[in-house]
Amino acid sequence: MHRPLTFLPAFLLLFIAVSIEAFVVPWSRSDSALFSATQRHDSTQSQQPYKPRNVLPNLTWLRDFAIEKVFRVPKPVKAGSDRHGSLPHPSSSELPNTLLAKYGGDVVLRFNLSTPAEEQALAEAADTLFLDVWEFTQNWADIRLREDDVPSLLGLLPKSLQKAYSNLMPDLAKTIYQSYPSIAFADPALAPSRTDRSFTPALRTSDGVENIFFRDYQPLSVIVPWMRLMASMFTTHVRMINIGTTYEGRDIPALRVGVSPNLPQEDEEPRKTIIISGGFHAREWISVSTVTYIAWSLITSYGKSPGITKLLQEFDFVLIPTANPDGYVYTWENDRLWRKNRQQTSLRFCRGLDLDRGFGFEWDGTSYQSNPCSESYPGDEPFQAVESHRLAEWAKNETDNNGVSFVGFLDLHSYSQQVLYPYSYSCTADPPSLENLEELGMGLAKAIRISSGQQYGVASACEGAVSSKLAPTGGVSRMETGGGSAIDWFYHEMHVRYSYQVKLRDTGSYGFLLPKENIVPTGEEAFNAVKYFGDFLLGNKGIESNLVQEMHRSIPAHPEAEKVEEQEQLVDDDDVKDYVAEINWELRRRRR
């Protein structure tokens, strides 16, 4: 079937509009970097996000119009929405029946943990009641359950925990409803094309965001065409590739961004490559949007930002927005809080495997996660999860047959704001390059802190998930198994020297239901971390001096250019010395 002829002019409009934006992006990004670099280095949770100015305000309508035509995005519907274009705040009785049936009466509780015995008791109680453990750190654990089951849970806990909790989300169903971007549950004008789909996404505007794609979370049906568009527009340094096929037959799409040398070489060295992945767990939407934001930032900065151009000449970046397309689609069409893939298990009514527990290194299927109904079920054997197996096969094929050397792996998750390095499976086994992992991990956290003021903790993936009093002893009680993780497998089996799991915003106020206003700020701080990651691999260790030099080179002359020198003075040599001293002190402390 041929596409309508109207598609061609719309695509041409989109090509022109996005090309204009690609030219303009470095200006606004430079302003944003300049703004971020001059902030205080302490955490400022109430800090307002920087709003980049629109250099060509009269042309953004062209871009938005073209995107709406190409992706068939419905026009914003103002009626019934608030001034930000988000969904109204309904009462529980006004929520869709399907949502009420699944999550009506559910709450999310945070338990503050202070002793190993408390963590042990909470882990066993969650196991007994088959509860959904949202997230956990050294100090707290967030658990979803029905409000009616709270007394049963408290009855299994020691007295010290029976009052050591707070209710993060008293009405989970309403919070889920409001997290969907412009969803029309009952509007016939936006009815799904298939009767079995419960949700239909639509894009609406958001204050302070110039790119329509990042104004809201996007479904896979929008992300994939967007990726194709990037590959077709920026052919010099972008290719769309396929990692493999999912359990339900979908492709696992990725963008390879980089500029390989054109001149033939006698002894051609393997191409150094960095993988940035998101969406291993389907409900972690912010990880998916952040990977696309990093991709867009790298793509549009090439040839305009000397620092990014250098990185793309030295490295290829493989960006995988979601390693779990089946699960991600399911969160849009059926269950917003679905975590696993959609693979059939031995129990017909309990589908799905945890992709991040399915890799072959130190796989663990002996704990309570051996129950197929567990949110962390790793399968009956290593690599039973189809998508984990496909990713591993692709990575091995790249190194064996395609001249690739993987030097970095960044696996984005949510939530809790942590930078975690190997090992995940054990708190007593130290990786051979522990000091290098710690140094770069603290550098990534520092890069985020300087750019946005957000605090990210740094620890091994095991220590980040257990009590600090338990970790050194080996007597570890965890909320879930740490074996079979992606970062451990890439580090140990693929010899990726720098392998990290980065848990993005927030620290629990919204959890997996992070509002859309956080998409761009989270993307910006992650992009700054990626720039630091690349600079570190190139041998550069001073983030502040690199940032100032980058701004100085990339900011074009315009009416406010004279302010740059004044702003640079705020990031001086003393800051660099303080930064290096802080890292050295932390490394010495950890050695003790």
Automatic annotation (TrEMBL):
Q: Which GO terms describe its cellular component?
A: extracellular region; vacuole
GO molecular function terms listed in the Swiss-Prot or TrEMBL record: metallocarboxypeptidase activity; zinc ion binding
Query: Which part of the chain is the Peptidase M14 domain?
Result: 216-537
What is the superkingdom listed in this entry's lineage? Answer: Eukaryota
Task: Identify which cofactors the protein needs according to its UniProt entry.
Answer: Zn(2+)
- Which PROSITE patterns does the record associate with it? CARBOXYPEPT_ZN_1, PEPTIDASE_M14
Which first-to-last residue range defines the signal peptide?
1-22
**Is Ubl conjugation given among the entry's keywords?**
no
Q: Which UniProt keywords apply?
A: Carboxypeptidase, Cell wall biogenesis/degradation, Disulfide bond, Hydrolase, Metal-binding, Protease, Secreted, Signal, Vacuole, Zinc
Keyword Protein transport recorded: no
Where's it found, cell-wise? Secreted; Vacuole
What is one process in the GO biological process aspect for this record? Answer: proteolysis
InterPro entries attached to this UniProt entry: CARBOXYPEPT_ZN_1 (IPR057246), Peptidase_M14 (IPR000834)
Q: Belongs to which family?
A: Belongs to the peptidase M14 family.
What job does the chain carry out?
A: Inactive carboxypeptidase that may play a role in cell wall organization and biogenesis.
The protein, known as: Inactive metallocarboxypeptidase ECM14
Native organism is Hyaloscypha variabilis (strain UAMH 11265 / GT02V1 / F) (Meliniomyces variabilis)
